[in-house]
Amino acid sequence: MAEVRSQGTLSRWRSWWQRLLGREDPEAARRRWLRQSGRIIEGEVLDIRPAGQGTLVRYRYEVASVEYESFDVVDTAGREYRYWPGQRVSIRYDRRRPSNSILD
């Protein structure tokens, strides 16, 4: 329990420090950019596993005849069965760097 509490405190401290310096968390910035500017493509869920407060979803998609495989941790608050293996899903990816992607 103390480890979880200290991670939360560290996360809040890091967030406060980055706001103070005028910087955004790089992962949050990447996800925000992909949500705003990423191209949408269809992919397939390969596997799901519990991951802390969410679910780790492994998926694959194809861009310009190249197959990519990635994963995303999604919040499952009240939606434990939102994803399942074999499901077709929308994925947002960076057209300049197709390996950079998130579940839509």
How would you explain this protein's 3D organization?
The mean pLDDT is 84. The longest helix has 20 residues, at 2-21. Strand 1 (39-51) and strand 2 form a beta hairpin. This protein has a 5-stranded antiparallel sheet. The protein has a domain at 40-103. The protein is α+β, with helices and mostly antiparallel strands and 104 residues long. The termini are far apart. The chain is flat. It has helices at 2-21, 26-37; strands at residues 39-51, 54-63, 66-75, 88-94, 97-103.
Can you describe this structure in just a few lines?
With 104 residues, the protein is α+β, with helices and mostly antiparallel strands. Helix content is 31%, strand content 45%. This is DUF3592 domain-containing protein.
Task: Please write out the topology.
Layout: H1 2-21, H2 26-37, E1 39-51, E2 54-63, E3 66-75, E4 88-94, E5 97-103
Antiparallel strand pairs: 1-2, 1-4, 2-3, 4-5
Nearest-angstrom radius of gyration?
A: 16 Å
Q: How would you write the strand order of the largest sheet?
A: 3-2-1-4-5
Largest sheet: 5 strands, antiparallel
| Anisotropy-based shape | flat
Structural class computed from helices and strand pairing: alpha+beta
Number of helices: 2
Low-confidence parts, pLDDT < 50 over ≥5 residues? none
User: How much helicity do the residues have?
Assistant: 25-40%
The ordered H/E elements are HHEEEEE
Topology, number of strands: 5
Overall pLDDT, averaged?
Answer: 84
Separation of the first and last Cα atoms:
32 Å
Q: What share of residues are in beta strands? A: over 45%
